[in-house]
């Protein structure tokens, strides 16, 4: 038996265990690094990837160290006794091998794979093999099966209501923080909109990261349910309530490999909406030269796939193809995006018009789901709720209900302006490049890091005029971002 030692090591989303190489009572042949082991205690067990340790200060003989994820998931106190054994090879890996060979998998095979992924029985290499095989070819029926399986393995919320709405964007457009405006508008109208969102993985900020500037987003299920019952809405991090947990595991491998196929996108998004208890969804698909979807033909293909899978799942979906040619709003990064959102909700004169207009359009589409609003009056109702201050009041109630942040986050104090290299007109902004620069500045981990856009597409600029301002909370982050911006600022300017 070994005693648990909690180690402050973040190996998200992987469960990782640490065993001393010497004096652990096991031979090297029994337990090798990067192999899966089963850890069993009195009332719980988990699977974890093993790392062997040569530093006795980290883990001593007779101990097993658990990273934060493994310790939390096992749920036993530090010092509790556990036993370990080699984890069996998942039987579903045979289906993965078949997929690599080009076979089409049936629903039961895909369900078994997803259960094993969610149960952390696969190594990152094995997950990568599955994802690459699926990226090569995945049928519509396989996509549907994966969506169902991903929704089934985690928690499922049921709001016991015939109309539960949601709004989602496929991402890829910096500053597109419309959900934080749509949700309070819809809540002020009285529809149920329990918005659970992810944290950023490759973007400068996700909805959860931005909302966290204003309020607590790490809510337990009972807290989330109580808030929705009172306020009709929530803006929370979905990871805490365990919605489609397999998706989080898959994404952690997809993103470094830059795998983002339409089929996997559909399964990821719709599985989480199904798990969150949504019945009606407005989906924003931005289309642009540096967006995730780059042409109208791609957009049409993706829309048809979403519509087909949603229909089979019983989810009513309204898909909107929107302009993804440039960032939306001015701020990119949690604090700067939260500033823009609140400016729109307060009806400030200098609030970003593009963010306001985009959010109103999407809110109107969501409100059109309400049968009481006849003749497509959703947009007019959304405009009314924003202009009257009702949406702002709903947002303030939501912030209070989730727990207002005790301290005010501010933009990073380290600042560098990026200026136009010539006179001319801005004809294009590279969304991907701008996002990379903002991330190198420290967003979203550093809440105040990011980019403040000064000029958008169509602006006439003079040589030396500021195009945007980089904010960072450290000189190092500012240096990294500035170096990338000097290589290519992400702006195309023609005379």
From TrEMBL:
EC number: 2.4.2.4
Domain of life: Bacteria
InterPro entries the record matches: Glycosyl_Trfase_fam3, Glycosyl_Trfase_fam3_N_dom, Glycosyl_Trfase_fam3_N_dom_sf, Nuc_phospho_transferase, PYNP-like_C_sf, PYNP_C, Pyrmidine_PPase_CS, Thym_Pase_Put
Biological source species: Sphingobium yanoikuyae (Sphingomonas yanoikuyae)
Gene3D superfamilies associated with the record: 1.20.970.50, Nucleoside phosphorylase/phosphoribosyltransferase catalytic domain, Pyrimidine nucleoside phosphorylase-like, C-terminal domain
GO cellular component: cytosol
GO BP of this protein: pyrimidine nucleobase metabolic process; pyrimidine nucleoside metabolic process
A Pfam family: Glycos_transf_3
The keyword Disulfide bond belongs to this UniProt entry's keyword annotation: no
Enzymatic reactions: thymidine + phosphate = 2-deoxy-alpha-D-ribose 1-phosphate + thymine
Molecular function in Gene Ontology: 1,4-alpha-oligoglucan phosphorylase activity; thymidine phosphorylase activity
Protein name, UniProt field: Putative thymidine phosphorylase
Top EC category: transferase
